[in-house]
């Protein structure tokens, strides 16, 4: 395996640990949805694109993949802070939906999305996040969590810093002062 060294990025979760964790999450999801006809994996762009690629291929149950794109903006009073940029193509009504996210931090994005989707009457709705930050006041929790991480900025495996480093094979912490 090639070792990737990137100035300003320190490895937190190596590639082999991510691979193993994705497989174990897929096993649990396979079991939990074994009685369900078909699962809709709904990836949240952009951060989830690598995670959902690997997770969807590790599953054995019938599944389809679709995407939704959200963007956060500066919070103003009484505003949710999240905007829908691109909607799913597949109708949500009557489907078993698993939202796939890269990171759960404040939970603002996931709360917005679960509310939006619940109004469309899915058969069921759950969420799966790759990494979760510590947060006491979070309003919403994920059903499946890959890794607990410290309260620091992480990049790689889909996660970015100013749109950089998404394609790194591992998850790392970034030191903005040490970047090229
Ligand atoms: C990131 C991430 C989640 C959200 C989590 O999105 O992908 O959607 O923040 O944070 P929260 O729990 O505090 O809401 P970002 O706006 O960075 O977009 P990206 O996925 O395109 O990188």
Structural write-up:
The mean pLDDT is 93. The chain is globular, with a radius of gyration of 16 Å. It contains three helices and nine strands. It has helices at 15-32, 49-58, 108-118, and strands at residues 9-13, 39-45, 63-72, 82-86, 96-104, 124-132, 144-148, 154-155, 171-174. The protein has a six-stranded mixed beta sheet, with helices on both faces. A three-stranded antiparallel beta sheet has the order 1-9-8, covered by helices on one side. It is α/β, with parallel strands linked by helices and 180 residues long. The chain binds 1-O-pyrophosphono-5-O-phosphono-alpha-D-ribofuranose. 1-O-pyrophosphono-5-O-phosphono-alpha-D-ribofuranose binds next to strand 5 and helix 3.
């Amino acid at each position: 395996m090639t070792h990737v060294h990137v100035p300003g990025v320190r490895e937190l979760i190596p590639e082999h640990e991510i691979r193993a964790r994705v497989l174990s999450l897929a096993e649990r999801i396979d079991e939990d949805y074994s009685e369900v006809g078909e699962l809709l994996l709904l990836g949240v762009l952009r951060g989830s694109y690598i995670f959902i690629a690997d997770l969807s291929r590790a599953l054995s149950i019938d599944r389809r993949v679709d995407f939704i794109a959200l963007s956060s903006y500066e919070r103003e009073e009484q505003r949710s802070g999240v905007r829908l940029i691109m909607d799913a193509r597949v109708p949500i009504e009557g489907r078993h939906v698993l939202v796939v996210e890269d990171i759960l931090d404040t939970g603002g994005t996931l709360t917005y999305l679960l509310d939006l989707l619940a109004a469309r009457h899915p058969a069921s709705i759950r969420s799966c996040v790759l990494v979760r930050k510590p947060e006491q006041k979070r309003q919403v929790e994920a059903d499946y969590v890959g890794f607990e991480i410290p309260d620091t900025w992480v990049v790689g495996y889909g996660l970015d810093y100013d749109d950089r480093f998404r394609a790194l094979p591992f998850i790392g912490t970034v030191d903005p002062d040490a970047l090229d």
